[in-house]
Amino acid sequence: MESVKIIVVGESGCGKTSFVQALLGSPTADPPATLGCSVDVTLYQYAPSVEKQLYFIELWDISGSSCYEDIRKMFYYNVDGIVFVYSLADGKSSERAVNWIVEVLTRCEKISKQPILFDREQYAIEEKPLLVVGTNFDRKDDVLHHNIKQPVVSNFKSYFDSESETVLLNCRLRIIPRSISENQIHRFFDRVIEKKFRLQRLFLYSPIVGTPSTAKTLLKKHRPPAEIIYRR
């Protein structure tokens, strides 16, 4: 069965693990800190497909602690989708949103403590489906909500993924089936699957390319640079 790799990134303590556990149906009020990286796998049915094919969704919950700045980059290879998590109760966790995306795309050993500029054109070929998750929705106030949500969304739509959406959650509770939040998450999963598999099939089996064996030769001849993280 095919699988996709989705990394979950954000500042330490912003609610990444709580989001993953709520998504898997086992919410925890106060989960322990993640040591390096924790991986969970869930089965997902790709609804837009006529065959309703099943896929494994790998959720890589990566620690945001400064203790792991030097080793985080090893988890950023062969990424198919990105979930950026920030806390509605902590403005700092959203201010460095672009820094985290740059860290993932460039595999920097360390990231600046100050906001940095992001050249979308430079990384256009590496665009990845992205979901923005705001946690602690039960603790937010209206002022904080309006000051944080819109800048985070506009950052990603301007610099990274025009289809990115923001999901606001109380991760102490299960995500309600068929709710708006669940639908947003499922749309993100669908985009991840489509981006990874449809583009490859269009290239490898296009009538213009030829037979699969010919396509394999052309793929080797025109192989993208090693820095492109969507290759398999």
Automatic annotation (TrEMBL):
Keywords: GTP-binding, Nucleotide-binding. GO terms for molecular function: GTP binding. The keyword Electron transport does not apply. It holds the Pfam family Roc. It comes from Trichinella pseudospiralis (Parasitic roundworm). The keyword Lipid biosynthesis does not apply. Gene3D superfamilies: P-loop containing nucleotide triphosphate hydrolases. InterPro entries: P-loop_NTPase. The gene is RABL3. This is Rab-like protein 3.
